[in-house]
Amino acid sequence: MADESTADRYRERVPAPHRQPRYRAIADELRRRITAGAIPAGALIPSESSLTAEFRVARGTIREAINVLRAEGLVMTEHGRGTYARPNLPVRRLGPERYMSQRQQDGDETTGARSFRNSGVEQVNAEYQEVAATPELAEMFEVEPGTVLLQRRLLTSVYGVPQQLTTAYYLLDTVAGTPVADPNREPWPGGHVAQLQSLGILVTKIREVVQARMPTIDEAEALRLPAGVPVLIANRRTYADGRTVEVATSMVFPADRAELEYEIPADLT
Amino acid sequence: MADESTADRYRERVPAPHRQPRYRAIADELRRRITAGAIPAGALIPSESSLTAEFRVARGTIREAINVLRAEGLVMTEHGRGTYARPNLPVRRLGPERYMSQRQQDGDETTGARSFRNSGVEQVNAEYQEVAATPELAEMFEVEPGTVLLQRRLLTSVYGVPQQLTTAYYLLDTVAGTPVADPNREPWPGGHVAQLQSLGILVTKIREVVQARMPTIDEAEALRLPAGVPVLIANRRTYADGRTVEVATSMVFPADRAELEYEIPADLT
DNA sequence: CTAGGCAACTTGTCTAGACATCAATCATGA
DNA sequence: TCATGATTGATGTCTAGACAAGTTGCCTAG
Predict the structure, then answer these.
(1) In the structure, how many helices (H) and strands (E) does chain A have?
(2) Tell me, in Å, how far CA of B180 is from C1' of C17?
(3) Which of A205, A232, A269 is best to mutate for the B interface (most B CBs within 10 A)?
(4) What pLDDT was estimated at residue A93?
(5) What pLDDT sits at residue B49?
(6) To the nearest whole number, what is the mean pLDDT of chain A?
(7) A131 compared with A92, residue with greater pLDDT
(8) A92, B11, B43, B163: which has the fewest Cβ within 10 Å?
(9) Helical segments of chain B, H only
């Protein structure tokens, strides 16, 4: 007979009580090869047609197995090239010092975080637009709905790799006619805290709410996210003297290359 | 040249410069219906066969469109029943006050967060175990690798719904023989900060690093996570007088029902 | 009235093939 | 030597159909 090595183990036609679908068995086998190192990180896995031959199934079944691994974030695919085991990316840690001024950032090395801002490797694609406040935004700014806001949409890249997608708002009144309203000034040294400071507004408190979800297709494309990688969402609200002076409704981070760090001063028991 | 079959294939194609694949257009349309409320949360979307009839495509194309929505966490599917828009679960917001004592929590209503602790609706399944410190843990506690730690594994449920999976460590020396080492005392009023306080240790600072990823199969089962929902991971390090007194290597939250809130005092510019 | 089974739905799995699109390689001609 | 076009082989998209398996409700036999 022909070689019965790999294929026939997955061709069980016996109706077992808890028989696993073949695409899952194939996914398990490929996962095993990757985690065991038989397929090293970054290397191509066998092509769909050769897997079709090896496991003796239709191509659709192979593609379903690969979909499982893609959803787990274990492999990624490039059209025309192939599918390969996903290499681990360097993670960028974003700590509280990202809201400090440049000088303080340099002095704070306790977290091991580094500042990329204005170091040449950080690039920001900024689009500013005037929009009417939605009821939610109006309530946060304590203004009437419809009040004009300056909407800032930013795509931040480090070393050419997209890292952050931000949608944020200022009250137009507070920034109109100032350098802050100029999108070409991004990236602004010190970020939005420094922008507000240049207007004489001293930030007293920032509150962030962190969530996670799967990206939309648009976000996945903008951040070049492989399938199976969620996004971290941070919603920011910036206060000065108890009033809200800035709101970021969604800062979107690729979860495979970003993590957020916070400090809680706990001398309040 | 295949003339008949080729003409057949293009029978309903719109000549567009950036033609979108059919399955993505269908996914967009279904997403629009769900987000616009035409399909309310929790309701079944049309069956695959009726969508096949509506969009005049093969069933595989419909299934691919639904896969897109499932990967976004927008819908979930039950074998034999159908596919429905994922209902929005009540979201539990975890703010900094979760590390405060009970009295302060009651007085702090600025965030709208509520305390479930010891109110009867919060239940904790606790397993304590003595383990040897790994090199990483030993470095954080500034002890020799192999030093015995008390490992706490907690599954927290609110109203019977799993909410949090925690693995945390104390130095065994600091807690051995005290009520803190008794897993039956969970849930402890005031959490680990109060536990340390009962030992005379005053927490001065807590640092948390937040990440997100897809759950492992074990986590998905323990937290009863549907497909397409990531988990939020918080790594906590608790300090007293500059020394690390507690480490939580992974607090796992289901991202569809939890969000984390932090405050950054920004009077440091 | 109820228990059981059947019928009619649903999604899950799988086959076999066609053509489109993209990337890399190789042969060829300027 | 170098640009370019053809070829090859990879994944992407889509069709048409078959049978498996889970869920629900109805209808009938007891």
Answers:
(1) 8, 10
(2) 67
(3) A269
(4) 86
(5) 96
(6) 81
(7) A131
(8) B11
(9) 3-9, 22-36, 48-55, 59-71, 102-107, 135-141, 172-175, 191-198, 217-222
Question: Do both B112 and B58 map to the same domain?
Answer: no
Lowest mean pLDDT among A176-185, A247-256, B27-36, B243-252: A176-185
Spatial separation of the C-alpha atoms in residues B252 and B249, rounded to whole Å: 10
Protein CA at B60 to nucleotide C1' at C6, angstroms: 29
**Closest CB from A100, A208, A229 relative to B262:** A208
B72: nearest CA in chain A? A214
Contact B263 A209 (CB under 8 A): no
Cis peptide before A187 (omega within 30 of 0): yes
Q: Comparing C-alpha atoms, which of A54, A44, A51, A33 is closest to residue A82?
A: A44
In a domain, A266, yes or no: no
Q: How many CA atoms lie within 13 A of B8 on its CB side?
A: 4
Do A45 and A68 fall into the same domain?
Answer: yes
In strand D, the nucleotides that come within 7 Å of a protein beta carbon are 9-18, 21-24
Number of domains in chain A: 2
For residue A15, say whether its CB is under 7 Å from any atom of strand D: yes
Of B35, B67, B85, which marks where a domain is finished? B85
Averaged over A218-229, what is the pLDDT? 81
Backbone angles phi, psi at A48, to 5 degrees: -60, -40
Report pLDDT digits (tens) over A29-63. Answer: 999 999 999 999 989 999 999 999 999 999 999 99
Burial A202-230 (b: 16+ CB within 10 A, else e): ebeebbbbbbbbbbeeebbebbebbbbbb
Which helix (H) or strand (E) covers residue A216, if one does?
Answer: none
Chain A to chain B, count of Cβ pairs less than 8 Å apart? Answer: 152
With 50 as the cut, is the pLDDT of residue A6 above it?
A: no
Does the residue B265 lie in any domain?
no
The residues pairing with B148 across neighbouring beta strands, listed in sequence order, are: B132
Buried b (16+ CB within 10 A) or exposed e, B100-125: bbeeebeeeeeeebebbbeeeebbbe
Listed range (A12-26, A141-155, A201-215, B62-76) with the worst mean pLDDT: A12-26
Closest residue, by C-alpha, to the C1' of C8 = B80
Residues A256 and A168 in one domain: yes
Q: Is the peptide bond before B179 cis (omega within 30 degrees of 0)?
A: no
Test B264 with A264 for CB contact under 8 angstroms.
no
Q: What is the pLDDT of residues B21-56, one digit of tens each?
A: 999 999 999 999 999 999 999 999 999 999 999 999
B16 has pLDDT over 60:
no
Using a CB-CB cut-off of 8 Å, the residues of chain A touching B60 are 60
Strand pairing partners for B252? Answer: B165, B233
Residue lying closest to nucleotide C16, CA to C1': A58
* Residue A241 pLDDT: 87
Residues B142 and B240 in one domain: yes
Task: Output DSSP code: residue A44.
Answer: B
